[in-house]
Write a structure and sequence with these properties.
alpha/beta, Rossmann fold, five-stranded parallel sheet, four-stranded mixed sheet, 9 strands
Length: about 200
């Protein structure tokens, strides 16, 4: 029985093509996990709803969040900012949800700095050639983009020792089971285990 009702904060990183999205989707089926809605300064695409897909902010509003320490992490991509609102994560964790953030290395290390209790998980393919095969199989990107993704992955590898766990995604079902095991192990830490019923009564 848990004595700490606050949910875990879990960061999942890894190269595109390593099944992160599927791993997160499987964990969400448990009912005790959640993902937070990110904030961005880009314009909504057709069908996107503010507060559901993203929190769509102006650059001024986003800068205010930065200045007020309202973001756990943020980065700029193609002229737009993306970030993880602290309030959203705090609310979900207060409800007892284990919040999963699927973000890249730069953002993960920002989260760890602001929330030292965050659990960092990095998923890797069995080989670089297998990663290349998976990316080509998707058929959604050019050879040039795939080469850039692989090069980016190899640049991130030196940062893996900053993470708490590494999951090999050879077979997806095994990777999902390993990800679930991380949560189970973290909930065995003394901060989460209620031993009050074992204490000597005075």
């Amino acid at each position: 029985m848990s004595k700490n009702n606050k949910g875990l904060l879990i960061v999942l990183s890894g190269p595109s093509g390593c099944g992160k999205g599927t791993m997160v989707a499987e964990l969400l089926k448990r009912g005790d996990c959640a993902v937070s809605v990110s904030a961005t300064t880009r314009q909504p695409r057709e069908g996107e709803i503010d507060g559901t897909h993203y929190y769509f902010l102006s650059k001024e509003e986003f800068q205010q969040r930065i200045d007020n320490d309202g973001l756990l992490e943020y980065a700029e991509y193609c002229g737009n900012y993306y970030g993880t609102p602290r309030a959203e994560v705090d609310r979900l964790r207060a409800e007892g949800k284990h919040v999963i953030l699927e973000i890249e290395v730069q953002g993960a290390l920002q989260v760890k700095k602001r929330c030292p209790e965050a659990i960092l998980v990095f998923t890797v393919p069995p080989t670089v050639s297998e990663l290349s095969r998976r990316l080509h199989k998707r058929g959604t990107e050019t050879d040039e983009v795939i080469e850039k993704r692989i090069a980016q992955f190899q640049k991130e590898l030196p940062f893996v020792p900053e993470y708490d766990y590494v999951i090999l995604n050879d077979a997806l079902e095994d990777a999902v089971a390993d990800f679930a095991s991380v949560i189970r192990l973290e909930l065995m830490r003394p901060a989460y285990v209620d031993l009050s019923h074992l204490e000597e009564k005075k």
